Amino acid sequence: MAVKTYEFQAEARQLLNLVINSIYSNKEIFLRELLSNASDAMDKLRLEALQNSELKADLSDLHITIERDEKEHTLKVIDNGIGMNAEELQNLIGTIARSGTAEFLQKASDDKSKAAELIGQFGVGFYSVFMVAKKAVIETRKIDETEGHRWESVGDGSYTIEDAGELPQGTAITLYLKDVDEENEIADYTREWVIRDLVKKYSDFISYPIKMMVTKIESAPAEKEGDEPKTIEKEELETLNSMKALWARPESEVDPKEYNEFYKHISYDWQDPMKVITMKGEGTFEFQSLLFIPAKAPYDMYMPESKRGVQLYVKRVFIMDDCEELVPPYLRFLRGVVDSSDLSLNISREILQKNRQIKAINKSIVRKVLGTLKTMLEEKPEEYRKFWAEFGKVLKEGLYNDASQREKILDVMLATSTHSEELTTLKDYISRMKEGQEEIYYLTGENMAHVQKAPQLEAFRAKGIEVLLFSDPIDTVWVEMVSDYQGKKFKSIVRGDVELGSEDEKKEAKEKLDQERKDMAAMLGWMGTNLDKKVKEVRVSNRLTNSPACIISDEHDPNPAMEKILRSMGQAMPDFKRILEINPEHQVIKRLHELYSEKGDDEELRSMVELIYDQAVLAEGGELSDPSAFAAALSKVMSKALG
Ligand code: ADP
């Protein structure tokens, strides 16, 4: 094959541009990316060999070599891992196949300061070499092929691939380095100590030896007696990293920085994690685990194909990434490692799903993480708020898909409430419940701004009774399925009857309501007949102070947001008509009652009834079925009022 030139895929080119024009301040991380890739390549080879006994792979001495050439100003990173074939060179290095790339590029170009952070999440590690190199060459041979290939690019718009004949097992990457430029943070990456420092700083835990020729100064005996002893310089191949599995070391002996670097290695995140969680499996199954809560939610957390799960190791040997069986979906933001000493090395995905030990590990992780969150909430509420802002929505999924942990998730739930600007826990809500209040009141809706202004809140606000306000789509789902917390039932304030206050107050309110119902009975019936296509009943309300009317749901009907979700999922269901409640104290209602008592059924009054209904729909953020009829009726009223 002659030299073939290829264009980088458009997205890759854009990304490359971002990288080269360097939004990153620490260009030195390119080495970490190369060492990470090399380590992954050896993991892959080891796995492949386990699954395919025909494979002729040399696993006896997997390692990485770094070669520096000060004269040529080049740096070479060599591994004897799985290697790449021509197609992979094109697919893996030349293109970015990940979903959401376009969206990412949009975000990155909108806000340059975000770019570095975002690039990390996209795992575009290899491209980072162009921050420090004028040209990069990859020589590589895929393990099952006899001939290798050579890839070359200067990071502009294109790259070349050509046959390279016989090559050793694995991949060698040569960087033709840019000139040293301290101002732009380009150091001399051919210096021994520079590389030593970088390996220690970012890649010490890599589980394969990273070797490099280093200069040793030794003293030699003096040639003649009486002379000074001589020193001689000796070149020697040395392993630069300690290779210690971080999860196997006691937490007290690990520098927090080491955890952070390890996190970046496994997560593709460029930021430090929010929280490090170490754990050891006690009891029948032995395992060690090192888990991280990221500082920021990954961009794809809600995408169906999002990465889920943590890495699985068996006796220090890497088995797989994203082992879904180890963590439930509502903890899918966790990153980290589980190392078990009891599983078999060639465990398959199918076996994993049924494995008792994996299930037990999953359970311990859930317990440990929820426990850690509780402690965080109690001891570091500020930090916990940040956690909640990033991952609260995901955690709430557990409320309906893991009934066994419901109470524990509710323990650490934060919610908006009418009490104050700050989010509240349910425990705090309960501690503020008014005398005679038996239930946890809540209101759900699609939009927090609407929810906060809902007329149905008026009486609660007036009486100083706190209501929890929910607006995540997920809230409408769990709140239907979770009946109570600490013995207190959840109660929607827009469903069924509400009775507020002490026993005496409730009694008094009921008597008043009965009286009003009697007084207005004729009008209520007439209104109901007029609106019978839209509501199942019109009745007097005790939840309003300022508004003339509001709409509520019947005791056992689903709330409208839930209904919408179920319908959008294709669920067939009857039409649930709602209930119009009117405020008997309101001037508009009082006047309507007077006029109705005088005139009875009348066209003008009928259009008032429509207006009252429509504005109750608008007040809860709903949509009118006939906006132009509403506008026409409103204009008529206005012209009359303006005379
Ligand atoms: P990422 O590592 O985030 O997937 P990179 O741009 O660093 O992104 O690498 C792209 C892909 O190229 C890797 O996923 C891997 O499949 C392949 N690759 C990179 N370096 C090597 C290597 N040294 N040996 C084998 N494959 C490699």
Structural write-up:
The structure is a single chain. With 643 residues, this protein is of the alpha+beta class. It contains 22 helices and 23 strands. It has a nine-stranded mixed β-sheet, with helices on one face. Strand 15 (414-417) and strand 16 form a beta hairpin. It is elongated and about 130 Å long. Adenosine-5'-diphosphate (ADP) binds at residues 33, 37-38, 41, 79, 81-84, 92-93, 123-126, 171, 268.
Which features would summarize this protein structure in a list?
alpha+beta; 9-stranded mixed β-sheet; 6-stranded mixed β-sheet; 22 helices; 39% helix
Write the topology of this structure.
Layout: E1 4-7, H1 10-20, H2 29-51, E2 64-69, E3 74-79, H3 86-94, H4 101-110, H5 112-121, E4 133-141, E5 147-153, E6 158-166, E7 170-177, H6 192-203, E8 210-220, E9 230-239, H7 256-267, E10 275-280, E11 287-293, E12 310-314, E13 317-323, E14 335-340, H8 349-354, H9 356-379, H10 381-396, H11 398-401, H12 406-411, E15 414-417, E16 424-425, H13 426-431, E17 439-444, H14 448-452, H15 458-463, E18 468-470, H16 473-481, E19 484-485, E20 488-492, H17 503-519, H18 521-530, E21 535-540, E22 549-552, H19 560-568, E23 578-582, H20 587-599, H21 603-619, H22 627-642
Parallel strand pairs: 2-8, 12-14, 17-18, 17-20, 21-23
Antiparallel strand pairs: 1-6, 2-3, 3-7, 4-5, 4-7, 5-6, 8-9, 10-11, 11-14, 12-13, 15-16, 15-18, 19-20, 22-23
Helix pairs in contact: 2-6, 4-5, 9-10
Adenosine-5'-diphosphate binds near residues 33, 37, 38, 84 and 126.
